[in-house]
Design brief:
single chain; 315 residues; alpha+beta; Alpha-Beta Plaits; Double Stranded RNA Binding Domain; 3 domains; eight-stranded mixed β-sheet; three-stranded antiparallel β-sheet; 11 strands; 41% helix
């Protein structure tokens, strides 16, 4: 093996995290061979079997490389097909006007996405009260078309007269940029950082340290908050990654190439609703873009989004 090929393989091994994926392969091999997994959650078992197959192919093909030409072919085969492939998703839910009904609808949507992730065997964590991180194979690309306004029609549990109410919530789905390199650099002068105490469960030392971090991009007014970690520095890093994702999305929408050109204050864009969930006077979920509909509203709200999401992938 030539020194050049050694260098190429070292680079490829680091970029495609071969050693990490070998460890993951051993974990998956143990998990999918467990009969209990197939009994308790067949969908999760199938997802893990797919992940095992893909990682097995990746590692096997990497270990079979014998020359530079095969290395280039490997890179072409396994390079992400788009810039956000295989990234986790950040889902934020913003209730519309409507007090308790709207806030409850926002919570129902957050629960729905959490249950959907659990069914697929994906990992979740709450970044802040209105934002959940979902880690799983290609989670962002699978969920990105959930972005938009979701409408609920039901008999309000908060109305003493038992009247029918309509509630709205805006769902925002962003790629979790994490530690990947981006071209976006935000000048320090354009960033305002605020610290607050956590409102989480107490204890003797609860709420004494201001660990919640909120970052604001002053020119646009865009914000991001993180309270998931115990330290300010970790929460600041997470909040900055979310803010960068929001700014990148805005740059694409405005067709800007430089962040310095974003100088106008922006507000949440509600636009048209993408999906309706009707609980009264009949039961139906209808996606207004794909025309997919089902009467199994309870199943959908309990995380069975597979057919809705599959229909969205063709948008």
């Amino acid at each position: 093996m030539t020194e050049d090929l050694d260098f190429i393989l070292k680079n490829l091994g680091e970029r495609f995290e071969i050693e990490k994926n070998k460890t993951r392969l051993k974990e998956l091999e143990f998990e999918v061979s467990n009969p209990d997994l197939w009994t308790k959650n067949r969908f999760e078992a199938e997802e893990k079997t797919k992940e095992y197959g893909k990682l097995k192919n990746l590692v096997t093909d990497f270990e079979s490389i014998t020359n530079a030409e095969e290395a280039r072919a490997f890179e072409a085969e396994y390079m992400p097909k788009n810039e956000y492939e295989n990234l986790p998703a950040l889902i934020s839910v913003y209730p519309g006007a409507g007090g308790e009904d709207a806030a409850d609808w926002g919570g129902m949507l957050m629960k729905m996405y959490g249950l959907y992730a659990a069914r697929r065997g994906w990992k979740t964590r709450m970044i802040d009260d209105d934002t959940i991180e979902i880690k799983g194979e290609d989670a962002y690309n699978i969920l990105k078309n959930e972005s938009g306004v979701h409408r609920l029609v039901r008999i309000s549990p908060y109305d003493s007269k038992g009247l029918r109410h309509t509630s709205f919530a805006l769902v925002e789905v962003l790629p979790d940029l994490g530690k990947i390199k981006t071209d976006i650099e935000i000048p320090e002068k354009d960033i305002k950082v605020d610290f607050n105490r956590s409102s989480g469960p107490g204890g003797q030392n609860a709420n004494k340290v201001e660990t919640v971090v909120k970052v604001t991009h002053i020119p646009t007014g865009l914000t991001a908050t993180s309270s998931v970690e115990r330290g300010q520095s970790q929460n600041r890093e997470i909040a900055m990654n979310i803010l960068k994702a929001r700014l990148l999305k805005l740059m694409k929408e405005k067709q800007e190439t430089e962040i310095s050109n974003l100088k106008t204050k922006v507000s949440i864009e509600w636009g048209h609703q993408i999906r309706s969930y009707v609980l009264h006077p009949y039961k139906m979920v209808k996606d207004h873009r794909t025309e997919y509909e089902t009467s199994k509203v309870d199943d959908v709200l309990n995380g069975q989004l597979d057919e809705l999401v599959e229909a969205e992938l063709n948008l």
